[in-house]
């Protein structure tokens, strides 16, 4: 155990000194700062901005009141739907639509957490992949194994170092965003609505960022190249686009697939469960359909990511234990 701790400390030092790690961290933190600038006018609007938004809202409301009845009647006459359906097509304007009042903290806070999370996911994956990919490319991995021939300890120390560094990056990005957003909202005199809910989402986000770093590390280890590791999610995105049409209809060949897709399970983990929609055609030509809502639970997504993490780490360890790295 002491040897593993010393090796992990050495790997953390090497990881911290890498240019990719520094650049990725700076880019993520710069994006966090930029997010605060972009939301400032929303969470802390000036009196003039609020007055202008109020005028726009009142004008839109007057227009809606003058035209709504006629619009609904025209919709029904042209066969656009029932009275209730046509009513729903033309809802009344709300103050939220025109930002008459600042958005609640939970809304802007979750948006900030999501922004920081996805940026950190990409950065952590890149850091993990480039860390081991560069060692394969330069031959330093073979040199390191001549000094420390215990391969499983080397594999574990590098993986733990990537895990800790990714978790730190995610925690700083997510909770800096959360803290700065809360400061802006509170400074404007608005309540921190559902702050605990947003903080919990941030904690779950840190877990996913840490796993993203490990994923980059394992994939690059298996492929022996940083670029090949980066190509894996890009290739997945291409395949996902091609098969999308076979997953949206409940009668399609791959209708069973969505609960096992990584993007849906990522969303379910971050949001503590998520609902998605599939369709069923009600006419033979597909011109009309009904929507069917389905749910992916937080427990399902947690087990999904735990299973993938275990399989990836075990596969990486087995390959690294036997592979020729020269």
UniProtKB/TrEMBL annotation:
Lineage: superkingdom: Bacteria
GO MF annotations in UniProt: ABC-type transporter activity
Keyword Cell inner membrane: no
Residue intervals passing through the bilayer: 20-39, 118-138, 159-186, 198-220, 227-247, 302-320
Keywords: Membrane, Transmembrane, Transmembrane helix
Annotated Gene Ontology cellular component terms: plasma membrane
Keyword flag rRNA processing: no
Protein name: ABC-2 type transport system permease protein
